[in-house]
């Protein structure tokens, strides 16, 4: 198994894909994972990749303003790819389904899995791993549907498609199709092992309360008070910061809401929800689902913690591997919010990841939601998270 990455800033999609295809090893080329900024149209990428790399399983997802690989952080109009070369007996298959408000998400997920399993020629076999990308809105339901399909929790890594300014210019594609509203996934039957992880990297504060009113992804009341008032008061009391009611996306990135998922040695760990804006009802619009009765905690993430957390998560994942020499490569997912908040310090995050991987190939988009596997084995969706998948040999 071999990983290869390449990045292009060519603004002409056809020429950009040709450049990427020429840079990839064709022998045993089994999978290509592609991240691109919104300047490239997904239907054009799908067409050009299918012409340049016929017969290769492909999944693509838009990213916020740039992409990170083992070769550095790349902003601007950009396409980055991770190619996986595996031997012929190890299969990969992708599936994409358009999803609208009228669609049944569970049925759409089952359909996407059916397409992917058929392409991989492994129907009836449990995948070793799944890469998942969808447009924002239905991530939790998609994960639940995947778990129910296989009656167990297959390790996943994923990220919600992003654009540059949260105005709906996100998209996904495979070698067969593309959409601005739907889900895409790729099933892996790889020759090497995969260790996956999902973590928040934020610390809980003393402020917490119960959700007493909500509507899907709109948090309306905390402890029977308007959610916007409670949230802004918590930030003011904790940090002495007055957040304007129109919100500053990068500022509130430092103070998400957390919900406990489990415990490690009596210490709770969390999945995060990122407030996007205040609603007309005095509520908070989130990038995750929320439910009545759940306890939410104000979380805090200072700059140094956010810089170091991706490296820390990879270090934790590496504990399952006996030697760094076993590492083949990695996929990382980092939320767009911390990337925008850190600005130039995102290059320090790159150094942390590269050091932990000893220069091995990796790719990392900046997404509007992150999916992965917690330490207890649960697959989940959260915001402002870091998700990782480390491929390693058994030797």
Structurally, the number of domains stands at 2
Give the termini distance in whole angstroms: 13 Å
Overall mean pLDDT stands at 93
Q: Count all strands and give the number.
A: 26
Give the percentage of residues in beta strands: 35-45%
Q: What Rg, in angstroms, do the CA atoms define?
A: 20 Å
Low-confidence stretches: none
Question: What's the helical proportion of residues?
Answer: 25-40%
For the sheet with most strands, the description reads: 8 strands, antiparallel
- Shape, please? globular
**Assembly context of the chains:** single chain
**What's the tally of helices?**
9
Summarize this structure as a short list of keywords or feature phrases.
globular, six-stranded mixed beta sheet, 2 domains, single chain, alpha+beta, 26 strands, eight-stranded antiparallel beta sheet, 395 residues
Could you give a short description of this structure?
With 395 residues, this protein is α+β, with helices and mostly antiparallel strands. It contains 9 helices and 26 strands.
């Amino acid at each position: 198994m071999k990983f290869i990455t390449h990045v292009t800033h060519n603004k002409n999609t056809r020429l950009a894909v040709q450049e990427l295809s020429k840079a990839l090893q064709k022998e045993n080329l089994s999978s290509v994972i592609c991240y691109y900024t919104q300047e490239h149209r997904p239907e054009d990428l799908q067409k050009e990749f299918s012409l340049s790399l016929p017969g290769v399983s492909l999944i693509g997802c838009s990213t916020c303003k740039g992409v990170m690989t083992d070769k550095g952080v790349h902003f601007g109009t950009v396409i980055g790819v991770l190619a996986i070369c595996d031997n012929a007996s190890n299969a990969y298959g992708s599936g994409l389904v358009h999803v609208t408000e009228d669609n049944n998400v569970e049925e759409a997920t089952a359909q996407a899995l059916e397409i992917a399993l058929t392409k991989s020629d492994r129907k009836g076999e449990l995948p070793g791993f799944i890469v998942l990308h969808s447009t924002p809105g239905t991530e939790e339901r998609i994960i639940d549907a995947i778990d129910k399909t296989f009656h167990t929790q297959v390790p996943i890594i994923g990220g919600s498609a992003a654009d540059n300014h949260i105005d709906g210019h996100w998209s996904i594609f495979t070698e067969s199709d593309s959409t601005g509203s739907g889900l895409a996934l790729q099933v892996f039957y790889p020759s090497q092992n995969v260790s996956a992880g999902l973590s928040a990297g934020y610390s809980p504060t003393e402020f917490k309360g119960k959700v007493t009113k909500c509507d899907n992804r709109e948090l309306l009341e905390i402890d029977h008070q308007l959610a916007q008032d409670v949230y802004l008061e918590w930030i003011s009391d904790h940090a002495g910061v007055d957040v304007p009611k129109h919100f500053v996306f990068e500022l509130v990135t430092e103070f998400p809401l957390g919900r406990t998922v489990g415990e490690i040695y009596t210490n709770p760990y969390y999945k995060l929800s990122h407030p996007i804006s205040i609603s007309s009802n005095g509520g908070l619009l989130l990038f995750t689902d929320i439910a009545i009765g759940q306890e939410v905690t104000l979380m805090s993430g200072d700059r140094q913690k956010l810089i170091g957390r991706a490296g820390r998560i990879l270090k934790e994942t590496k504990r399952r591997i006996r030697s760094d020499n076993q590492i083949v490569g990695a996929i990382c997912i980092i939320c767009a919010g911390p990337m925008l908040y850190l600005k130039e310090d995102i290059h320090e995050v790159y150094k942390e990841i590269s050091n932990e991987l000893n220069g091995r190939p990796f790719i990392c988009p900046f997404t509007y939601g992150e999916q992965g596997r917690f330490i207890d084995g649960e697959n989940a969706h959260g915001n402002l998270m870091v998700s990782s998948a480390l491929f390693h040999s058994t030797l």
